[in-house]
Design brief:
Distance between the termini: 78 Å
Strand content: 15-25%
Pfam family, one: PfkB
InterPro entries: Indigdn_synthA-like, PfkB_dom, PsuG, Ribokinase-like
Organism: Pleomassaria siparia CBS 279.74
Number of strands: 25
Shape: elongated
CATH topology of one domain: Indigoidine synthase fold
Protein name: Carbohydrate kinase PfkB domain-containing protein
GO cellular component, one term: cytoplasm
CATH architecture of one domain: 3-Layer(aba) Sandwich
């Protein structure tokens, strides 16, 4: 095998030079009871798109659940972003799968560590597939060897992985040689890895590959001259690589020639770990020597040898090898995708030379002299599909009318519940700056999703408007929505974006300690994109009665949604999400430049009506009908309004004056309708000051219940009903009828039953459950007090569930819909 030196110009293929390839016989099998290629992969291969194989042993016998799900999502996303189609290969229920759906991949990753989930090489494939006929259903993660043979059967030529197996140290007596090497000698698939694992005998591994007729080259990766074959975590091994590969174009040309010549052995392209993620050889060699010594002392051999040594190296390195593993695998898969893309270009040129031009794939010709780094990071590939973009377009079939529209985050949620060990110094709260033992659960979540799900469970027709990435997490989320019976027409898929994720860390009492959220997919939206993607199609549908918006949108986009709600005269609800995001409701309001003097209605009672009207400032419409903050979010809203002088505008003063609050204040009445402790905390006082912007505020107080603070309109029934009289703490007496204020309503609605600590399973999603059921009841035209009562009962059910929104919420459907 002769490799070209220097920057390689992409070859132009003539008709005659491609005749050999056109007549080349290829081993292919069609889908049958033992072997299935996914529809996406079949279509990509038929259209000559770049397809990259991925192994699954790293998911079943490497990374634990749910880390393996996250890694699977990352690697498939890397392939799609760089213009390829991922083909994850493994065994499910005794059937070899080439390309897995999100639910299939999740099913496989969840089975990691189970006795029926095996590590599968060439020798094992017929055993696990044949076992299905005998009633033995096995799952399996395929090794490099197992993945290569299944990829070749499907017609896939490029495979990205982590580290190659090899000749073990002491193999002259143990004969411990990885099947990966013999597979490379007989299966024509190009493998891109970070060399072989560094605890193996690298010189003998290269000698064995030479004997098997395997072409081996290492990417120069910015270096000049001959380079070392990499040693997995280290870029150098002290052993020179047989060949040096300059770039992906050169690698693709070699693969193309290999198949054109019908050479039935594989190729190994070694990709050194990125420089910034390398663990130097001088640091790794002593750790490897110690791990091998302990393995020999404990007799860890055969199948147990590699897992033992890897675990011991992880321990000895203080965990440094784990992030290095992730980075090198990601780098290898990215490079494999670019190679597959360059190979598709060569094959497209061949088809053109033969007069067969496919309209399915239009390759972008990149400069052969561009750097490897530039091509590795090239993510804008016109003409190469990175997955369909699903827009919430309105089809010709009329969609069912909805009562509630929810706009906001759809995310993958991770709930981490602290489980202290016997010797833990703090039995309640996790320790900062270190790892803590926990029970970690993964569910479909996101504030808007949870709200929509709660409303859906109690029978309200609801549409969720959100965005997901074109990745495993996004596709799994879409499938879960469809399976639950919820509408998905409002979900748009955005290529080159990450599906939102939320990680909650709870203490031993299941109370939230801290949370981390990646909601950037929503925060990059613009007002015009919201209009084009969602609002224009919605204008053709029946209007919803209620619009709920969460705080994950940017402030301008948030107000675009709220403006839409006002335009259709729908009840609008704002769920603040967090203290940091709650203030987005106010961030688009410019602070007053001055505070001009004016007379209130009460101070100008002696003036004529016409004079008084001229002096009174106009009333600014509320920003939103209703908000559901907790005490921290309420405080954040109040602090922002104070610091930005929002309580100093003439319109605000006019509304507050119209409430009729006596000069003696409301401390005593507030203590009677709530509790002295709540008043001492200033909660109702803060809510009252915010009423000109949010006329109904429901502050969630946890076990204490929900504090209702409401600006009553002049025609509000509460002003006349005897059962509400004690909650009406002030009435408009200044004669300012145009202010639209009738009085002030304050009421604490306590929870029906306070749960014990043993009954609480998870606090995640209880506020979202509350908002969803609240909206469902209000959209039926029922009283706010009844809505709050049912919403609190629903939140209590979610408190007792591992899911963010308990399925038992559906038991309230009869009460909501009656």
């Amino acid at each position: 095998m002769r490799l070209l030196a220097g920057a390689l110009a992409r070859p132009r293929l003539s008709f005659h030079s491609s005749l050999l390839q056109s007549s080349a016989g290829r081993r292919r099998i069609t889908n049958n009871g033992f072997f299935r290629v996914s529809e996406e992969v079949r279509e990509a291969l038929a259209a000559k798109k770049p397809v990259v194989a991925l192994e699954t042993t790293i998911y079943t016998h490497g990374f634990p659940y749910p880390d393996n799900v996250a890694l699977a999502s990352l690697l498939e996303s890397v392939i799609r972003v760089n213009g390829g189609v991922p083909a994850t290969i493994g065994i499910l229920d005794g059937v070899a799968r080439v390309g897995m759906s999100p639910e299939e991949l999740i099913k496989l990753t969840e089975s990691a560590g189970q006795k029926t989930t095996l590590k599968l090489s060439r020798r094992d494939l017929s055993y696990v597939c044949g076992g299905r006929l005998a009633g033995k259903n096995y799952h399996g993660g395929t090794t490099i060897s197992g993945t290569m043979i299944l990829a070749e059967l499907a017609g896939i030529k490029v495979f990205g992985t982590g580290g190659l197996g090899g000749v073990h140290r002491g193999a002259e007596s143990s004969m411990d040689i990885s099947a990966d090497l013999t597979e490379l000698g007989r299966t024509p698939v190009a493998v891109i890895s970070s060399g072989s694992k560094s605890f193996l005998d690298i010189p003998r591994t290269l000698e064995y590959l030479e004997t098997e007729g395997v072409g081996v080259g290492t990417f120069a990766d910015g270096r000049t001259g001959s380079v070392d074959f990499p040693a997995f975590w280290s870029r150098d091994s002290g052993v020179k690589s047989p060949k040096t590969i300059q770039n992906e174009i050169e690698a693709a040309a070699i693969i193309h020639a290999q198949h054109s010549l019908q050479i039935k052995s594989g190729l190994l392209f070694a990709n050194p770990i990125p420089l910034e993620n390398e663990i130097p050889r001088s640091e790794m060699d002593p750790l490897i020597a110690e791990a091998i010594r302990q393995a020999d002392a404990l007799g860890a051999s055969g199948n147990d040898n590699t897992p033992f040594i890897l675990a011991k190296i992880k321990e000895l390195s203080g965990g440094k090898t784990i992030p290095a593993n992730r980075k090198l695998i990601e780098s290898n898969v990215r490079r494999a995708t670019i190679i597959a893309r360059e190979l598709a270009i060569l094959e497209a040129q061949q088809a053109e030379a033969q007069g067969h031009v496919s309209s399915n794939f239009t390759p972008i010709i990149s400069s052969p002299t561009s750097s490897a780094e530039e091509r590795l990071r090239n993510t804008s590939l016109a003409g190469i599909s990175s997955g369909p973009t699903v827009q919430p377009t309105i089809t010709s079939q009329p969609e069912p009318p909805i009562e509630i529209l929810v706009a906001g985050a759809l995310a993958v949620d991770f709930s981490c519940d602290y489980t202290p060990l016997l010797g833990s110094s703090d039995k309640t709260d996790p320790s900062p700056h270190t790892s803590n033992p926990a029970i970690i659960r993964q569910t479909l979540g996101g504030v808007a999703h949870n709200i929509a799900k709660a409303a859906h469970l109690v029978g309200s027709p609801v549409r969720l408007c959100s965005a997901i990435g074109d990745d495993l997490s996004g596709r799994a989320a879409l499938h879960a929505l469809e399976s639950s019976g919820m509408q998905t027409s409002g979900i748009t898929v955005l290529p080159n974006h990450r599906t939102a994720q939320y990680v909650a860390v709870n203490n031993a009492n299941k109370d939230l300690t801290m949370a981390m959220a990646d909601m950037s997919i929503l925060e990059t939206g613009t007002c015009s994109s919201i209009q084009d993607t969602w609002l224009t199609p919605l204008s053709k549908l029946p209007r919803p009665k209620c619009v709920i918006v969460d705080g994950n949108w940017s402030s301008p986009v948030l107000h675009t949604w709220l403006t839409y709600a006002r335009s259709i005269e729908a009840l609008s609800i704002f769920e603040p999400v967090s203290t940091a995001k709650s203030t987005r409701l106010f961030e688009s309001i410019p602070p007053p430049t001055d505070t001009p003097s004016f007379q209130t209605a009460s101070s100008s009672s002696s003036s004529s009506s016409s004079t008084k009207d001229d002096q009174l400032p106009p009333i600014t419409p509320p920003l939103v009908s209703l908000a559901t903050p907790n005490t921290h979010e309420l405080t954040a809203l109040h602090s922002y309004a104070t610091n930005h002088s929002l309580f100093s505008t003439p319109s605000w003063f006019r509304t507050i004056d119209a409430l009729g609050i006596p000069s003696s204040g409301l401390r005593v009445p507030l203590s009677m309708t709530t509790t002295p402790a709540i008043v001492d905390a200033g909660i109702p006082q803060m809510a009252i000051k915010l009423l000109p912007f949010i006329p109904t505020i429901l502050t969630k107080l946890g076990p204490a219940g929900v504090l209702v603070v409401k600006l009553l309109r002049p025609d509000a029934p509460e002003l006349c009903a005897s059962e509400h009289r004690k909650y009406v703490l002030a009435r408009c007496t200044n004669g300012d009828a145009d202010a639209g204020v009738g009085g002030l309503y304050v009421r604490l609605i306590e929870t029906e039953r306070v749960l014990s600590g043993d009954e609480v399973v998870s606090v995640n999603g209880i506020g979202d459950t509350f908002a969803g059921v609240l909206a469902a009841v209000l959209s039926k035209g029922k009283a706010l007090e009844e809505a709050v009562d049912l919403a609190q009962r629903a939140a209590g059910l979610s408190l007792q569930s591992v899911e963010a929104v308990s399925k038992n919420v559906a038991g309230l459907k009869g009460l909501v819909q009656r």
